[in-house]
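## retry 2 of 3
previous attempt timed out at serialization; input unchanged, resubmitting
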Amino acid sequence: MSAFGPASAHAATHLRSVLERSAVGALALLPAAVTAAALSPHAINPAGIAAGLVLFAGASFLLGLLASQLAAGVDSAIFRQFGNRLPVVLLRHSDATLPPAAKARVHQALMSRGLPLPSATVEAAGPLHADQSYREAVAWMQARAPSSPVAGRVTRAHTLYQMRRHACAIRLVGLAVAGAMLALSVLIAVRQAETAALPAPAVTIAAVVNALMLAAWFLEARQGAVVAAAKAYALRLFTVASPADAAPVEARARRVADIDRAAFRSTSDSTP
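## retry succeeded, writing output
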């Protein structure tokens, strides 16, 4: 049983990762599926639906694999200055994401569990040595997270972070598919309007869905959204060390995510 437990946990983690990637791929291909259904109503029958679902699932999986491959580039572009370990940065005394009092409680909670953390003076004198201590603390929290009282919150934050990484990685694909399907559905709607009083309701719905998906890919699959999700995950991860502080840290995580996303939306994004 001792061997079965870790194996099961590893299989569950792998499956969750596959589903996360495939979900992002499905979102990228959704405009094409909606448009195809609107333009080919005769194909909406049991056989057509079954074939469409198989094709859609397979394409989503393959696109998810592509997103996974490209996500490393997203990390490199966004977190180069953080050493690709944002939770480590947020634990530093020099970082102001958490208020000093909240950070002191997190540090104290970690030290009470036998994890030696440096003081502000020691960190300033030896930042590389301090970061090693913070990495060990982050690894401890990540290992303990699945059995923590706040495991659900941490898992949801990590899932959102991973999905945003993958969405940012295939942002151009999502924008291209949504833009092309929006143009096609609008063109069909205009041609239908020239020969009838109103375009077909299915085509109108497809145009609206495609417009919404185009806006979502433009606004939400940005580097700023990935950074905000990463910070929110890091802050929720800290609650593993001190579950009693979960509510204040959760509120802080939401505020940080909102501020970061608003800031990145108001400036030009380096992602095309």
